[in-house]
Amino acid sequence: MAKASKPSFNVADDPWIQVTMRDGTFREVSLRFVLKNSQDVASIGGDIPQQAVAIVRLLLAVMYRSYGLAYESDMSHIQLMSLWNQVWEEGMLDSEIIDDYLDEFHDRFDLFGEKPFMQVAWLEYASRDKEFDPISELIADVPKPEKFLFSMRSKVAPGVISFAESVRWLVFYCCYDFAGIKTPVKGNTKAKGGRVYAPKGLPGVGWMGSIGSVVVEGSSLFRTLMLNWSMFDERTSSGCLFGIEDDLPSWERDDIYPDSSEYSPVGPASLFTVLDRRMRLIPDESGSGVRGFIGCYGDIVRPTEASSFETMTAWRESEQQKKKLGLAVAPLMPVAHDCSKALWRGLGPLLVSTSGSNRKDLRPSVIWWFGRLRDEGVCDLPTVLRIHAQGIEYGSQSSVITNAYDDVVEIGNALMNGDQVAVSYAVETISKIDEGVSLLVTLSKRLQAASGNKCDGDPLKRASADVRERAYLALGDLSRECLREFTAGCDANAYCLEWRNEAKAILVRLGRQCEMESETPRFDLQRGPSAAEAWSMFSAGLGKVFGTVKDK
Predict the structure, then answer these.
(1) Cα–Cα distance, 527 to 287 (Å, whole number)
(2) For the segment 220-250, what is each residue's pLDDT rounded down to a tens digit?
(3) Sign of CA dihedral 138, 144, 147, 151
């Protein structure tokens, strides 16, 4: 029998990251290449969109650590800003710093080495009945056999995938894996009856599944990385984000054990690469691909302890956690994305700088950082802020992935220049639009009733959902344009009044369309409110909602 080939793949030097170059070509490149040539890369891709932010965070972790080792610690905020500005003006990352770091820890990037990249070399399942899980269970968009109707994948689940693809899914899995019962691994002390359950009081899903990730995007990957490379945040207790001595990315750690435990990150590099899962990839016999994996719970981050270092999510004060933990002050919890809402409808937590009972600034650190760069007079910053949001939605006690979130919105400089009056008008206008859509849905229901259509339950819900979707599609195009064109120096009151008037006109047009489609007699008092009365109530409601914008 031929001896199995020893697999060889190094994440630093072998291609695995899918990118779009600025010349429009698509490539698969190494970690080293993408960092040293980030100025020529337009964006990160992936097998599914949600891999992109996870990979960007990994790249940022390398930047925090490599530059942190190259420069002295305990730098002042003035020195940190000077360092950031120096790199920004150079227009590219320092190749020598990147090479020195990746060379020093080169063995830690081996996918199948003694200390494999983001894995545990000796990890084994405790049960003799199960050697490993098939690789298809690592891939998020490979559904169960009965669900293939809703998948773009082949009905034949992949038995082997390439090393490059396996790295992408490894990174994704550690960030977004769902909760539920896991098979215990040898050395795990938390198994009960041959099972390992999600830790009580802590998130069962991967850390990024607990937050609403937002990335500020630039015209190139270099600019994207720089705009999200927050050096400090004066709103947090720690303040500093760069050069933290013990802020080690996961591949530098030596204290990785089979047991799951609560993990306290000490900086962004350790948080962005936290091993939420203990993992080991299983190569195939030819040593040219991956056929399976072993996975179990790993380092679990308590959300209330992460606000000092998590830079890519908005926060909220949690009275529930305050009561549960017996705290004097409500702790901060991350704000997750609502998959039922487009990003433009949920901008409040990203833009409003004073919220919560103590009027704290709970915006994402990357949004705050952009404002700080603007205040410092950094040259050549984007005039339109492009915010890219991604996330995962879970169901059934977070034991299954039910939806994925991926949306982009562009914000004009009136809303990113610290003008909270303009922000307040914009957020209020979006709230009014939501109210207007609710009035349109109510009109549709009344027209259905007036026409003699007695449908209820699921048919009525579907009809209402269709009306709501049609409205938000039309209003979304308008609102995205108004947010993008909201420029500094304009009269925020007048601008939002025009925005609301246009939104009202769209709702009136859609209301007339609902009226025509319902084939309802204008006057028929025997069926309750007639079509004319339903329209009158709708029109009055719109007038009340979309009144003149009041001076603040």
Answers:
(1) 73
(2) 999 999 999 999 999 876 689 999 989 999 9
(3) positive
CA 359 from centroid of its chain's CA atoms: 25
In this predicted structure, what is the pLDDT of residue 318?
A: 93
Residue 225 structure tokens: 């990385």
> Vertex 214, ends 209 and 212: CA angle to 5°?
30
C-alpha distances in Å from residue 134, one per residue of 214, 278, 459? 32, 16, 40
Q: What is the pTM of this model?
A: 0.93
CA–CA separation, 87 vs 89, rounded Å?
A: 6
Confidence of residue 148 (pLDDT cuts 50, 70, 90): very low
Closest to 340 in 3D by CA, of 296, 402, 430:
402
User: The tokens of 259 are what?
Assistant: 């047991």
C-beta of residue 138 within 8 angstroms of C-beta of residue 169: yes
Farthest CA pair distance, the chain: 87
- Residue owning tokens 């209020």: 428
DSSP secondary structure letters along 455-512: --SHHHHHHHHHHHHHHHHHHHHHHHHHHHT--TTS-HHHHHHHHHHHHHHHHHHHHH
Confidence of residue 151 (pLDDT cuts 50, 70, 90): very low
Q: Is 192 helix (H, G, I), strand (E, B) or coil?
A: strand
How confident is the model over 354-384, as pLDDT tens digits?
766 667 899 999 999 999 999 999 999 999 9
User: In angstroms, rounded to a whole number, what is the distance separating the alpha carbons of residues 41 and 218?
Assistant: 11
